[in-house]
Amino acid sequence: MTFDQITTLCLAVTLFLIGTFLVNRIPFLNRFCIPAPVVGGLLFAIIATLLKSFDIIEITLDTSLQSIFMITFFTTIGLGASFKLVKLGGKLLIIYWIACGFLALMQNVIGVSLAKVMGLDPLIGVMAGAVSMEGGHGSAAAYGQTIEALGVPSAISIGMAAATCGLIAGALVGGPVVQYLIRKYDLKPSSDETEVYVEKAEHPVTEKSFMLQVFLITFSMAIGTYLGDWFSSLTGFVLPAYVGAMFVAVIVRNIVDRFNPDIINMKEINLIGDISLGIFLSMALMSIKLWEVADLALPLFVIVFVQVFFIVFFAVFVLFRVLGKNFDAAIMVSGFLGHGLGATPNAMANMSAVVAKYGPSRKAFLIVPIVGAFLIDVFGMPIIITTINMFK
């Protein structure tokens, strides 16, 4: 059975909606913040695998539209990168940001090293490193395309499997680790009432405003992809199209802010980004071939287990201390474990659960989302791309 471009798009949207329904109905999925498109797409991938395994039917999908939604999503992330927010984080934000960059480096070192020890292609280790751990499902699907083009079959499937394991692990270890720190050091919330920056309310969604956001996104995508192609042809260095688009979007955002901050409406930008990510992930998950990664189940488990052990050790014995060894530091550790193994929503869920029990931490809720949402890629992307080019 063959699905054409439009039918595949329809199927991706349908699976996104099915995933949303299941996440809202199944407590386990909701508790661990498993993304709806991951649930719907993975369910389809399992069904497709069973149908093929029993020689009932083989399904072929046309996912040629996937890259457009992928580039759109990363461009919206870039447009959210306001330098005003970075300034408000101060010294703690810089420390946390550097820690995330170090984590990305070590995750790649761990992934590549273990892959070599187990006799696997080093690029498989990259997919089970920062790509899927700190990067999550979106990064796994995006970089997976690049690595598959370099001759590693099932890179997307491997990355998705590792990202799912990391997502669950990040949700499981965040709370217990921070509870241990809070109880051991008898930590209490700070009485500091320093005002934190809150972006002013966006204007209502209108046709004119929405199309203006679409223009900014497509402009950044067009310039960014051309720059990416030019850079790759000039240097021979693989630079995925979405990387250039995202960094152009960062520049566009901060230039526009200098002239008229009211032009960018993050409510509309985030809406476009969420829709693009949902469709992109649905397409990526529903098209993975699970039968191709069955033989790698044990090596992947070993790599992910070591990744989890390392991030917990680093968070408790290094990050907690350099952030000040106080209540705010402990809450930031829970966020670090969440997006360091999964995604920013994981980080927010971890922190929300802890502060609901022990008290507020406004510093953590300012710094973690800023770094986890977009600053993390400033270090993460060059590290990942350099590692890919080293072992391609």
Describe the structure.
The chain has 392 residues and is an all-alpha fold. The protein folds into 2 domains: 69-81 and 88-197 and 296-391, no CATH class; 207-270. The chain has 15 helices and 2 strands. It has a two-stranded parallel ribbon. It is globular. The chain starts with a strand and ends with a helix. The model is unreliable at 193-201 (pLDDT under 50).
Please render the helix and strand layout as text.
Blueprint: E1 2-3, H1 5-25, H2 27-31, H3 36-53, E2 60-61, H4 66-79, H5 83-117, H6 122-127, H7 136-149, H8 155-185, H9 207-235, H10 241-259, H11 266-286, H12 297-322, H13 327-341, H14 344-358, H15 362-391
Straight-line distance between termini: 34 Å
Strands of the largest sheet, in order across it? 1-2
Overall tally of structural domains:
2
- Using the alpha-carbon principal axes, give the shape: globular
Report the biggest beta sheet as strand number plus sense, adding barrel if it closes. Answer: 2 strands, parallel
- Run of helices and strands: EHHHEHHHHHHHHHHHH
Tally of helical segments: 15
Percentage of residues in strands: under 5%
How many distinct beta strands? 2
Helix content: over 70%
Mean pLDDT: 84
**Helix- and strand-based class?**
mainly alpha
Poorly predicted residue ranges: 193-201
Radius of gyration: 21 Å
